[in-house]
Amino acid sequence: MISIKMRAEKDKKHISGAEKIIDENDLEKNVLKLIDRARFHEKGEPNFINIKIEKIRESEILYIPILNIKSKKVLFMEEGHILAKEELKKSGVGENAIENAFNMLSSLKQSMRGAIVLGANTGKRLDNFLDRGLRATKMDAEDFEKYKDFLDSKKISGEHAMEAIILASKVAFYKDAVAELCYSDDPSYLAGYVANKNDYIRINIMKNFGSEIGGRVFFVKDDIFLDDYINYIEKQAVLVRL
Ligand code: PML
Ligand code: MG
């Protein structure tokens, strides 16, 4: 198998990123698609695109289950945030950590390519990645056609949700993971989610139209051993099995 990682920037500003694990025969096709995705992004035309292609052995791949998907509908962003906060609390995230997460996301000057890692109890930021964040890489669905059919049956479509569910499933699988909060940095994509060890809870409106402020927060146990965690998030190849 082959892992492809794409990341695009315009004057150091993050424009787009994507992860794929594919069959070697589909390499060219997928690379072209990713280049197109980067070049014609709503956040602007990048002046830097990085494509990383790595071979991975079958024995390196970890197969994990998909999160259980739930959908919630709200009318306004404020309502979406209240709902997300409730879900995070139910997932075991402390109130301090929840407030910090929302404050950190809303005060971002530019979108990050990765996530902020917060202690789920203390709300302390644990990673040292600053404006870059910890980026989850090397993940995909084991059988993409089957995965698409599965999402169709749940009336979920579009690349954003498709990729986010895979990412959230990888992030949640780690032993010390507690929850995740995400909403998109793409100005016309308003949906976001809260994920925990079991569920991916989609919320249709998490921000106002036109805003490029969005990102991810990974909540983890405060006593996590960070090096192992970062290694898993950045390097462990994961396929989501249905
Ligand atoms: C992003 O990658 O821009 C975030 C996507 C969030 C997807 C939420 C959903 O539709 O389920
Ligand atoms: Mg984006």
Task: Outline the structure in words.
With 242 residues, the protein is an alpha/beta fold. Helices cover 31% and strands 29% of the residues. The chain is built from six helices and twelve strands. It has a six-stranded mixed sheet, with helices on both faces. Strands 2-1-3 form a three-stranded antiparallel sheet, covered by helices on one side. The two termini are 19 Å apart. The mean pLDDT is 96.
Keywords:
242 residues, alpha/beta, 6-stranded mixed sheet, 3-stranded antiparallel sheet, 6 helices, 12 strands, globular, binds pimelic acid, binds magnesium ion
SSE order and pairing:
Blueprint (H helix, E strand, L loop, with lengths): L1 E9 L2 E10 L4 H13 L8 E8 L6 E4 L2 E5 L4 H14 L4 H12 L9 E4 L19 E3 L2 H10 L5 H15 L3 E7 L8 E5 L2 E5 L11 E6 L5 H10 L2 E4 L1
Parallel strand pairs: 4-12, 5-10, 6-11, 7-12
Antiparallel strand pairs: 1-2, 1-3, 8-9, 8-11, 9-10
The site of magnesium ion has 4 residues, from loops.
How many beta-strand runs? 12
- Alpha-beta content class: alpha/beta
Q: Which strand order spans the largest sheet, edge to edge or round the barrel? A: 5-10-9-8-11-6
Contiguous helical run count: 6
Please mark out the parts with pLDDT under 50 across 5 or more consecutive residues, or reply none.
Answer: none
Q: Please report the distance between the alpha carbons of the first and last residues.
A: 19 Å
Which range does the strand content fall in?
25-35%
The secondary-structure element order is EEHEEEHHEEHHEEEEHE
Rg over CA atoms: 17 Å
Oligomer category: single chain
Question: How would the global form be characterised?
Answer: globular
The profile of the biggest β sheet is: 6 strands, mixed
Helix content percent band = 25-40%
Mean pLDDT: 96
Hetero groups in this structure are: pimelic acid, magnesium ion
